[in-house]
Every structure is written in C-alpha cells, then in structure tokens.
C-alpha cells in the first residue's frame, strides 16, 4: 500500500483528522488498483473518515449503470493486484477496507453499500458514496455511459445514499503501487475539499435522489493549473438547458453554465453539476439551491 509520504505535500492540509468522520463507500470505473482512486482513499482516511473501497477488479469504463452479480475471476486483477482464480470478490491481504468486485461499477457500489461496508462497520450503512476520481472527464453526453457516474447514480437513486462522482481531465493511468502522480494528488485534494465541505454543511448531505457530477481540469506541472489552489469552483448544469425550466438564481441569472461550457471557456475551473440520479440529467432549481447553500463559500462565477 502506498505510504502517505508520497502525497504529504499536496495533502498537508489533511494531516490531522477532522472531528466529524463519517462512513464512506468509495468506487470508480477504472478499477480498484488505479492511482487516482487510491490517492483519494489515502486523503479521506487521513481526514478521519471510515472509508471502504469497493471497486471493479479491472477497468470497466463506459459501462454506465450496468449491474450484474460478480463471477469468479480466471485472470489476475489489473496491475496484478490480485492472483488468478481469486473468486468473484476479494480484498487486500492486509487491508480489508480495500476491496475488488469482479463486475461493473454499479455492482461494486452495490456490494460495498449492502455487504462489504456493513460487515466492517458492525452492520452500519454508509453515509456517503464517493466515486472516482475518474481517469478522464465525464461531461454532458458522456455522463450517460460513465461507470463512475453510474455507480454514483446507483447509490443516490437505488440505495438512497448521497453520492458524488469525481472526474479529472488527465487521461494517464497510474498503478496503485507507484508514487502518486501530480494530477492524482491535486485531484485528491480538490475532491477531499468538496467532500468535506458537503459533510461540514450537515445532514442531509444532498437532496434525495441527487448526485453531484464534479469535473476537474487538466493538471500540468509548471503550468497555470498545477495545484489545487489554482482552480475556481463553478456551479454548473449537465446539459445546456435551452428549453429547461429556470435554474437557481446565481451569478446574476437563472441559467447555470453547462459543465462543457465551463471547461471550454475557463480551463482551470472545477465544474459542479447537480444531477438527477434517476436519469442523469440536471436536477431542478430546488435541489440546486440546497447544494448552493452548502457550497456557496467555495463557488465563483464565470
């Protein structure tokens, strides 16, 4: 398991636990041994949360909301992170909180919520589900096929647990057992910041049947967007909303920018869209208002 020393500098703000740690299920669609996922897992644990990772045994990108009970594996898990013939579900030999499920992202979230997490928490259910950070952006139409979004929507819609889907624009992959990449560390800091802001604002963490779709910009060493403090956070919508009802009143208008527009027009922005978990479209103005009230100290206007 990666040591926190690899990410100590970018995550120095999270060195001490917060006083209010909660139970979190973490998943993704890139696989349980992907670097982005593991670095955020380190960060959330360092903040004092009880995090149980339950993610696919291998890359399952583009699987949307597919859900099928896991089958026994014949081959090793991704990056040789589990041996061949390991069964349908497994965990790290020394970390029972790190688990793989040989199926789709939504299935791995379901197993984490229904069985893996409660087993480690003496029967208690998770209070929040966090998926990602995904390798690559999940914007607009891509949201419908993203497994990272699909897992979050399963949690919010089917399981009734608030969920946040995180994605980062960088597309390089990184094995879990290598030093944290710059982008993984920055994505973890941004994701942890948003997650903690939602938690600190109190329960209910999100409105019923709502998920947050968060997209982070490309991180480039030495560039204008190379650390978490460089970014601005923008409340957005999943689609353009030309014929949709008005959005929440924010930044002098009743139409939020689409997440695609945010990233095309302001390259170092983090878009935060309030999504309807039942169909992966933009949630209504009432839900947007509740999220705005929680995140207003973070947010900027375009």
Automatic annotation (TrEMBL):
Keywords: Hydrolase, Metal-binding, Signal
Survival protein SurE-like phosphatase/nucleotidase domain residues: 24-219
Chain intervals with Polar residues compositional bias: 88-97
Residue span of region Disordered: 55-97
A molecular function GO annotation: metal ion binding
InterPro entries assigned: SurE, SurE-like_Pase/nucleotidase, SurE-like_sf
Membrane-spanning intervals of the chain: none
Composition-biased stretches (Basic and acidic residues): 65-77
Residues of the signal peptide: 1-21
Family designation: Belongs to the SurE nucleotidase family.
UniProt name for this protein: Survival protein SurE-like phosphatase/nucleotidase domain-containing protein
Source species of the chain: Metarhizium anisopliae BRIP 53293
């Amino acid at each position: 398991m990666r040591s926190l020393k690899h990410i100590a500098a970018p995550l120095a703000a999270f060195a001490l636990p917060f006083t209010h740690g909660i139970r979190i299920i973490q998943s993704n669609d890139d696989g349980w041994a992907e670097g982005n996922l593991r670095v955020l897992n380190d960060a959330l644990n360092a903040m004092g949360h009880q995090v149980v990772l339950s993610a696919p045994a291998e890359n399952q990108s583009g699987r949307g909301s597919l859900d099928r009970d896991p089958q026994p594996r014949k081959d090793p898990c991704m990056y040789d992170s589990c041996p061949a013939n390991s069964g349908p579900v497994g965990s790290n030999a020394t970390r029972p909180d790190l688990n793989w499920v040989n199926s789709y992202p939504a299935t791995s979230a379901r197993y984490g919520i229904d069985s893996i997490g409660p087993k480690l928490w003496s029967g208690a259910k998770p209070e929040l589900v966090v998926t990602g950070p995904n390798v690559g952006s999940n914007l607009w139409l891509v949201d419908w096929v993203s497994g990272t979004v699909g897992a979050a929507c399963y949690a919010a819609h089917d399981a009734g647990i608030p969920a946040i889907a995180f994605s980062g624009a960088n597309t390089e992959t990184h094995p879990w057992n290598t030093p944290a990449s710059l982008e993984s560390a920055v994505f973890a800091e941004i994701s942890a910041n948003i997650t903690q802001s939602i938690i600190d604002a109190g329960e209910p963490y999100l409105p019923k049947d709502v998920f947050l779709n968060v997209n982070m910009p490309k991180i480039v060493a030495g560039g204008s967007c190379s650390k978490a403090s460089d970014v601005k956070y923008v409340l957005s919508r999943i689609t353009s909303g030309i014929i949709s009802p008005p959005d929440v009143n924010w930044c002098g208008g009743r139409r939020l920018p689409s997440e695609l527009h945010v990233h095309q027009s302001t390259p170092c922005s983090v878009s935060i869209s309030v999504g309807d978990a039942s169909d992966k479209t933009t949630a209504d103005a009432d839900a947007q208002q509740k999220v705005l009230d929680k995140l207003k100290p973070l947010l900027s206007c375009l």
